[in-house]
Amino acid sequence: MSVQRILGIDPGLRVTGFGVIEKQGAQLIYVASGCIKSNADQALPERIASIFSGIREVVSTYAPTQAAVEKVFVNVNPQATLLLGQARGAAIAALVSGGLPVAEYTALQLKQAVVGHGKAAKEQVQHMVVRLLSLPGTPSADAADALACAICHAHAGQGTGVLQTTGRRIRGGRVIG
Amino acid sequence: MSVQRILGIDPGLRVTGFGVIEKQGAQLIYVASGCIKSNADQALPERIASIFSGIREVVSTYAPTQAAVEKVFVNVNPQATLLLGQARGAAIAALVSGGLPVAEYTALQLKQAVVGHGKAAKEQVQHMVVRLLSLPGTPSADAADALACAICHAHAGQGTGVLQTTGRRIRGGRVIG
Question: pTM score, two decimals?
Answer without folding.
Answer: 0.86
